[in-house]
Amino acid sequence: MKVGIILPALDDSGMAKAASQLSFILDNLSCEVHMITVYEHRPFHEYAGSFHVLDVPPAMENQNPLKRIILFLKRIIALWNIKRDLNLNIVISFSEALNVQNILTKNEEKTILTHHTILSKNERLEDIYGKILKHLIRLSYNRASYIVSVSEKAAQDLITNFNVKPSRIHIIPNLVQTETIKKLSEKDLGKYTPIFENPVIITAGRLTHAKGQWYLLRIFKKLKEKFPKLKLVILGEGELKEHLIKSSQKIGLKTYTKGELTDSDVYFLGFQKNPYKFFKHSKLFVLPSLREALPLVILEVMALGIPVVASDCGGTREILAPSTDPNYETKDVEFAEYGILLPVFDENVGKANELTIVEEKWFKLMEKLLDDDYKLEYYSRKSRERINEYSKDKIQKMWLKLIKS
How many domains does the chain have? Predict the structure, then answer.
């Protein structure tokens, strides 16, 4: 069986990592795998099968909407041609635009769309191009053979807000390579070792609006008053990096960005190919996101037994509180079965030294937690316990069942 996996690029994104892992799953199922990216990008992740490029420039958010639409149409033509040339039986697509294009180029092959976001909350799709794309999603998604959503919350969003039929949707979360993560976590920290001689709060992800890192900076500033040796490590790159660095400095935090290591409060360490060695030596992982379908980074952190505090912003509930209603959203601190859930931040930010009501709840929880070794150890054990549900064998069986059907 010939299977094509199409995605924007095999870059450092979580989506690309999921596509890479899927290629190996399909290869293990004796499929002939073809990785297809939209534009030229040296593969960041390893992959199974052959590699192809549509060679269409990426559409950028700041581009003229008309130009983005023209590029959208060019990708349709390029995708139709490569489907024909490779004679694919199944085409699995990643990203909303490519999902629509996968359906619009459908012929005899089966189409499987993967879904990795809470689409109705995606602020990137509020311009003319985004509104057209969301309209196309409503019109086209029900024509797909299947839709694979990484979480119940993301699936329910499609059903409620985009009129997708429940019968089209299958829930298959991303897998976690636990043994690989543990092995990589043993690597030397190198020049960053002095940071982790102190208690460290760590967060990781794209430095974008949806990840909400600026709220964490404000909370951390107040935490430093009680825990003067506490450090905050931020891993990742993104369009808000300079803004976040300036915000950190503006509220009086000593901020490290690059070069020779200095004794600082906040460390922006950029994208790290091996974040696991940093996770392993941290006291607490915090995810302040405004929306998440199923954050892979939380699962990777839990594989190392790190306690997790996260906003109840979507799929985080399904990881940390799987026995609860995935559509429920807490308004207060929730000591869930496998981690701690907190309210999602609102958009209103107070003065530099004055936390909002939601920020204050986060601060009080973290203040108590950092002083509670028993609670930290408890959630460390629960993290290791939870990760077994995302093993390669379990996820591979789900994909095998879907492919056979």
Answer: 2
pLDDT in the model for residue 12: 82
Domain extent for 127: 2-172
Question: Number of helices (H) and strands (E), helices first, in the chain?
Answer: 14, 15
Phi first, then psi, for residue 112 (nearest 5°) are -120, 120
Distance CA 76, CA 124 (A): 21
- Strands 146-149, 255-256: pairing is unpaired
Same domain for 282 and 375?
A: yes
H/E stretch holding 388 reads none
Give, in order, the Cα–Cα distances in Å from 323 to each of 317, 319, 327, 336, 404.
9, 10, 12, 10, 29
The CATH number linked to 190 is 3.40.50.2000
* Size of the chain in residues: 405
Closest CA to 200 of 254, 281, 309, 300: 281
**Same structural domain, 153 and 209:** no
Are residues 223 and 329 both part of a single domain? yes
Same domain, 282 and 363: yes
Q: Looking at 172, 187, 209, which one is the last position of a domain?
A: 172
What pLDDT, on the 0 to 100 scale, is given for residue 404?
Answer: 83
- Residue 231 is predicted with a pLDDT of 98
Contact partners, residue 76, CB within 8 Å, separation at least 6? 101, 104, 105
Shared domain check, 141 and 190: no
Q: In this structure, are 164 and 262 located in the same domain?
A: no
| pLDDT tens string 196-250 | 999 999 999 999 999 999 999 999 999 999 999 999 999 999 999 999 999 999 9
The dihedral through the CA atoms of 222, 278, 378, 383 has a sign that is: positive
Given strand 200-204, what is the order of strands in its sheet? 255-256, 266-270, 231-235, 200-204, 284-287, 308-311, 340-342, 334-335
**In angstroms, rounded to a whole number, what is the distance separating the alpha carbons of residues 24 and 29?**
9
Do 128 and 232 sit in the same domain of this protein? no
Residues 122 and 251 in one domain: no
DSSP string for residues in 301-327:
HHTTT--EEEE-SBTHHHHH-TTS-TT
Q: In which band, very low, low, confident or very high, does the pLDDT at 129 lie, cut at 50, 70 and 90? A: confident
